[in-house]
Amino acid sequence: MDFNINDGFCELQFREDGVFLCVYPPEGNGKRLELNAVLDRLVRKKIRDFDRSKVEFAVRRADKTPVKIAEPQEEVKIDATVSVMVSPDKMKAYVTFTPPDNGKMLTLEEVLDELSRNGVIYGINRTNLETLVKYPVYNQMICVAEGKPPVNGQNGKVEFHFDINREHKPTILEDGRVDFRELNLIQSIEMGGVLCSLVPPAQGTPGKTVAGTDIPAVDGKPAVLPRGRNVAVSEDGTQLIANISGQISYIDGKVSVFATHEVKADVDNSTGNINFIGNVVVMGNVLSGFTVEAGGNVEVMGVVEGAVIKAGGDIILRRGMQGMGKGILKSGGDIIARYIENSNIEARNDIKAEAIMHSNVKCGNKLELSGRKGLLVGGSCKVGKEISAKVIGSHLATVTDIEVGVDPTIRERYKAAKEESIQLEADLRKAEQAIAILKKLEMSGTITPEKKELLSKSMRTRIYYSSRLVELREEFDQLEAKLQQDAYGKIRCYNIIYPGTKVAIGSCMMYVKENLHYCTLYRDGADIRVGPIDK
Q1: What is the per-residue pLDDT across 386-409, written as a single tens digit (0 to 9) for each?
Q2: Among 137, 387, 466, 476, which is most buried by a count of CB atoms within 10 Å?
Q3: Cβ density class 296-324: b for 16+ within 10 Å, e for less
Q4: 85 and 142 both lie in a single domain
Q5: What predicted TM-score, i.e. pTM, was given to this entire model?
Q6: Does residue 123 share a domain with residue 99?
């Protein structure tokens, strides 16, 4: 109940010649005393045979003049009362005091007894309660006891003994050129070296309700060592050890150590296609029509022509790629090159180059074009988060199609999952039909051994298809949720964006119709805005 010190109030006077009611008017912004409030008080005080019309008269006048409302009688003194309310989760307890009317206030012991009768025995703030009894607040719920919530234990974690967030940033020279030779990309380890260790989980601390009941806590879960290739788990199961000397690779959450296969000259007819489980270093060029595949990184010192390079890790081209429309780069990590022209390139993480021309680009994270040119012109470019370049498009209005905000691999996996689920549903229907026919034969006793084997095979197939469909639908829902989230990405241009450039950020689209200088393109609701460079 809200109470304002300026509100109107009443006073009861028990005299020898009768019971008198004195009503005081409000002051300032206070409220008038209502008739029902006065009547309630008269009932609580058990005043007999009061004259209601005189009570109404006194309330209406409210001029501090005592009005006789009943014959003489002894005053009933009303003591203060306390009620206790416990929250549904039993973690908080509240008290509400009703004021005394010429009676006595509750003692601390009486309030504690009432709390105990209502099952509140833990977490009582005695200091606050003493203050509340001494300086009571009436008709308001006051929290006087709080339970102790449980503290869940921390999960165990993996402590890496190498840098997993290593930035593949080339050195920018004083004249603006980018030194792609000094990238410091390789982290090596000797056989028997420790790659990572497990930090054990912590136990939780149980809590307690105000009723004194224990609340169990959840203990932390142990972490799992990210075991990849050419590594072993220590005898005590807490460390990951290198089985060979080589280069450390951290791909898809797995730690591996790869040996390096070195091609002394060009990848050509003398070497044929290269397929190696570890890292591959090509000292010369990769000629048109050849393929290099590696489980780790691929590094090419020379030029890549219309070839195919696929790597589980990074692809590093010390010079560049002239794809002639058929060159392909596909990386599970980053792609770093001086220039890329007329190629199809795809990186799960970042792409960094000085110039990308007339190519189809898919990049899961950031596309960064730096150095003297910092050029992106022609082709299509789909990037998960951000594009940073000096020049986008050309003065000839070359069609340059760029899209940021949605990881292209998610969109492709969504499409593939949808197609696979449609095919599985069709195959499952066929299996169900076959099972129904064969079951009829089995029930009629005319089934042959061959048909019985076919029935068993069909049953296993149905179980597999059903299980796979459940997995696909879960993945499908997750991918759909990611695609339906508002996509936000940025395009930073440190010089000029030419007309002919089409920009898409999520579902928003914009055609550049005039030169844009030194700006950031970003999404604002359903529109794409052009703003200043944001660092």
Answers
A1: 999 999 999 998 999 998 877 666
A2: 387
A3: bbbbbebbbbbbbbbbbbbbbbbbbbbbe
A4: yes
A5: 0.51
A6: yes
